Amino acid sequence: MILQFLRLFLIWNEIFDIFVMNFNFYKNMLKAERHKYIMTKLIEDQKVVTTDLALALDLSEDTIRRDLNELDSKKLLEKVYGGAVQVKEKSSNVFDIAIAAEEQKKQIVTKALSLLHDDQVIIMSGGSTNLVFAKLIPADLKATIYTYSLPIAMQLSQHPNIDLIFIGGKMQKNAMVTIGMDVIQVVSKIKADICFIGASSISVKQGLTEVGYEISIVKKAMIEASDRVVSMFSSDKLNTKMPHSVCDLKQLDTIVTELDPEDERLDEYRKSGVFIL
Amino acid sequence: MILQFLRLFLIWNEIFDIFVMNFNFYKNMLKAERHKYIMTKLIEDQKVVTTDLALALDLSEDTIRRDLNELDSKKLLEKVYGGAVQVKEKSSNVFDIAIAAEEQKKQIVTKALSLLHDDQVIIMSGGSTNLVFAKLIPADLKATIYTYSLPIAMQLSQHPNIDLIFIGGKMQKNAMVTIGMDVIQVVSKIKADICFIGASSISVKQGLTEVGYEISIVKKAMIEASDRVVSMFSSDKLNTKMPHSVCDLKQLDTIVTELDPEDERLDEYRKSGVFIL
DNA sequence: TTAATTATTGCATATAAATGCATTTTTGCG
DNA sequence: CGCAAAAATGCATTTATATGCAATAATTAA
After folding, report:
1. Cβ B32–A173 below 8 Å, yes or no?
2. The pLDDT of residue A59
3. pLDDT < 70 stretches in chain A
4. How far apart are the two ends of chain B, measured CA to CA in Å?
5. DSSP 8-state code for residue A87
6. Quick check: B111 pLDDT over 80?
7. What CA–CA distances, in Å, run from B23 to A50, B20, B119?
8. Using CA atoms, how far apart are residues B217 and B244, in angstroms rounded to an integer?
């Protein structure tokens, strides 16, 4: 009899505890704790509702709203009518590649489209100018293109008639190109009709030069592998130089800029025998 | 007697809960959530119909129309007579990769993050689930990752601590992955700790199967090269098969779906010894 | 410790937003 | 042209929010 009573008491006690816990557990919470609770809840449920929080924390909706406003102004969540939702991550889309002066580059590469013919084997280096070029390759061109640039491969993979071969290797992250011995080995085995090389810097005396050593030797290999070498760049690259040599001016067959081929800024280059488009 | 009554009450309560859940699940949705739902639906189905949404969300068509107008004015969709369609992306940007049911995939791959450790050598196949996985790899993870998927490489090239190696070869255009002997050769020389394989189809009897022959042999090589084989996919891939076999269920170490590991739909798989996350 | 100061909280009230309904206008289609 | 479906509009109702104010709690200075 007493035992039964005791058991009943214990059960009742437990129920009471739960009751108290539920209703007063958060009663003496500091604001900071409350904010933490709200943020946790937000992550768990993807959203928080003002009325639910008020109930759960045993506070007025006003207070919750003030909390949410505060957290909103700290950009920790986004307050909406009725509650709050997670801040939408500013997509920071990797795949959005911003191309500086795209219009100028379009102008440059459009001139070079005349160099393309069906059944050519083509090698393309990286660089935003070459990327613009890839975009503008006519849909009916049938050709084989080798590249070691991720964005250019992405672009060309949408082309219906291009056989695309990606040259693998270790990725150089910022430039989104592969580099290293693997690349050299593959490139050196290609027999290409034409290659399109982006240029960091070009000058009459130094020829093509690059910032990075690794890129410079890959480009060397490209030139070796191709019958015809074309480089496209804007005129601000003219008469500049970088640490690592790629090739002499003589080894370039054609250069393409936005300038008129007769422009005097190109005089020196024309004299050295390179064809200017 | 009282006990029986109590039990009855509990059962009734449960049924009532389920009832309420089904019919009011979307009832207390915040506007922001609703908009998110509409946008997800739009991506999944390419379109949304006003009446369907009104029905699905248990709201008047007026409200749905107001939502669609709002989203339209934000340029997030294009309202048309009867509903709304996706905004036609202005320049068919190749680099925008639409991922169907991205939220669900996030849920799946989040579970698999626990399999990652510093200094691992990892191979990743293509597929949108793996792409979502790549997005969520913590910034402080230091590892070496091999992949032959262009989008995944693009994504990982943004990661500060991953050594990324792209496996080159002929591009399979629609899937944006490289295939062929070049890929097999490279993969077969890798000694990886773990590989993450996307799945077209999986069944208890047939194991992993693929639509394309070429992809299937690449995946075979991946499995050979890895100590541990993990496959992540949504439950709709379960109990389906494709023409080309990749491997038996036994060869998989871990599978990850959005389901609870104890879900009965996974019973058969669990029995065959594969670990379910 | 006490008193003054400040911050927090809840309530009342006014304002604004969201939603559904009735009515009119527009649209697509035969 | 006419009809039915869809959309827009105005309005009423509900619900959420902002704001001033008073009560309370926490903090600081003396």
Report:
1. no
2. 87
3. 1-29, 89-96
4. 43
5. P
6. yes
7. 22, 5, 49
8. 9
Using DSSP, state whether A220 is helix, strand or coil: helix
Nearest chain A residue to B176 by CA distance is A157
User: In this predicted structure, what is the pLDDT of residue B46?
Assistant: 80
Whether residue A237 is contained in a domain is answered as: yes
The pLDDT-based confidence of B7 (bands split at 50, 70, 90) is low
CATH assignment of the domain containing A227: 3.40.50.1360
Contacts of A224 (CB under 8 A, 6+ apart): A187, A188
A47 contacts B33? CB cut-off 8 A: yes
Q: Please, which positions of strand C sit below 7 A from a protein CB?
A: 8-12, 17-22, 27-28
User: Which of A119-133, B97-111, B196-210, B213-227 is the least confident region?
Assistant: B97-111
**Which residue spans within chain A are E strands per DSSP?**
47-49, 78-80, 83-85, 121-124, 143-147, 162-166, 169-172, 177-179, 192-198, 201-203, 207-210, 226-232, 244-247, 254-256, 275-276
Residue A75 belongs to a domain: yes
| Number of domains forming the structure of chain B | 2
Alpha-carbon distances of B248 from B191, B199, B237, B245, B273, rounded to whole Å: 21, 13, 15, 8, 11
The A residues from 219 to 238 touching B (CB cutoff 8 Å) are none
Residue B23 phi/psi, 5° resolution? -90, -20
- Domain hosting residue B8, numbered range: 2-85
Q: Collapsing DSSP states into helix, strand and coil, what is residue A257?
A: coil
Rounded Cα gap, residues A226 and B103, in angstroms? 47
B138, B139, B145, B147: CA torsion to nearest 10: 80
Q: Give the distance from CA A36 to its chain's centroid.
A: 34
Question: Is some CB atom of chain B closer than 8 A to the CB atom of A133?
Answer: no
Q: Is residue B133 part of a domain?
A: yes
- Residue A65 (CA) to nucleotide C4 (C1'), in angstroms, measures 30
Strand stretches in A54-137, DSSP E: 78-80, 83-85, 121-124
Strand D-proximal residues of A, range 12-71, CB below 7 A, are 28, 50-51, 61-62, 65, 69
Give the integer Cα–Cα distance in Å for A209 and A199.
Answer: 8
Indicate the residue among A35, A58, A85 that finishes a domain. A85
